[in-house]
Input
Amino acid sequence: MDLAIKEKIVDIKQQLIGFNTVAGVELVILEDGNFKFNIAEINVHNNLLKLNTHRTDIYLLDELKEIVSVNTPICLVINGRGIIHKKVAICEGINLVQLVFPNANENEFYVQQQNATDESVFVSLARKSLINGILDQFGCAGFEVVSLSLGPFCLIALAPLLNVNISDNDFRLSFANHYVQYKNGQIDDCLFKPKYESNKNWSIGNDYLPESVLTAYGAAFQFLFPKTERIVTKVDVVDEARGDWKYKKLFKVFGATSLGFFLVVLLINFLLFNSFNNQNQVLHDELSIHKQQILLLNKLENQVEQKKEFLKSSSWLKQSKVSYYADQIGLTVPKDIKLLKLDINPLQVSKNMRQKNFKFANDIIQVNGLCSESAYLNNWIKLLRELNWVEEVTIKNFEKQQTNNSKFDLQIKTK
Output
């Protein structure tokens, strides 16, 4: 590659968007509705622009997958049937679609525009249903389309490398199926010639490529170098795919860096482990001598803790209020009530698969007795609730006996 091109690439290298390798794919829609693909894959390495591979006359996406890896982003340019280019005068307030098709629904078309001569623009239109269908097919094949163009206008960015002077008055550029006429450096006319064939080769630096892949090359070139004028069609799905691809690349770089970091950490850990393991073996030999004594000590400590917990849960370590509670309850019992049982802090036994667990309900008093009338019992409950150490009094059972008396069970919860 000559010095001028190399200096240009060095200058714009700082503006690279993070894509080092892209595949330009020209999709030509034939008259019968079938597709033909022309491919040019390029990359930038060590400040050099290189053509990796190019192919023409591919008719199936499966064939395309054999040439271009699904891990390579695709810059798609579409030509042929269904793609309309028209030069129109700029009119403020009028939608570009209406300038081409006055009665058309602008929401049904994707629009691309390129400045032309005489205060006019070239408008390129394609139905969204057509473009979305093509993008779906690329997506199902596993490709990521990160750029979409209509027509040959992406070659504007490539013109300085083709050794042609588009600033010449009435300059004509004819290649593959396209005919582009320039006037004072601006596109003045553009035609698509589906049956035109040519074997001309173009030289770009040290690379030679047939003119049939020139459009695909231009689509990839304008994408790699953002300083050039990009002629693209805005499609939300494509914009999202481009953003996702950048994040994927960032993730891969971050993942590789993280993996290298963790490998170094693992190596250091291995060396430290080796050293500490030798020391540990020495200490382990010493520890085994006293292991039985330590186990016995732990067992005794556990037994002590269990007994402490039992004494604590049984309230044996606290000041006993059993006599106080019994005296207070006895003072409030009316003569019409006969107590049969007074159980302060009753024992609760819970069974599990291995043993019984004994626990005293420290805040519970169970009272069983007889009364002739329920009113006497209700009055007594009111007296009990007025005691400052009583939190709640609950009737657990009230049963009418064959005699005139009724049997009751109360539960007193202390504070």
Summary: Residues 3-234 form a domain with the Nucleotidyltransferase; domain 5 fold (CATH 3.30.420.380). The chain has a mean pLDDT of 83.
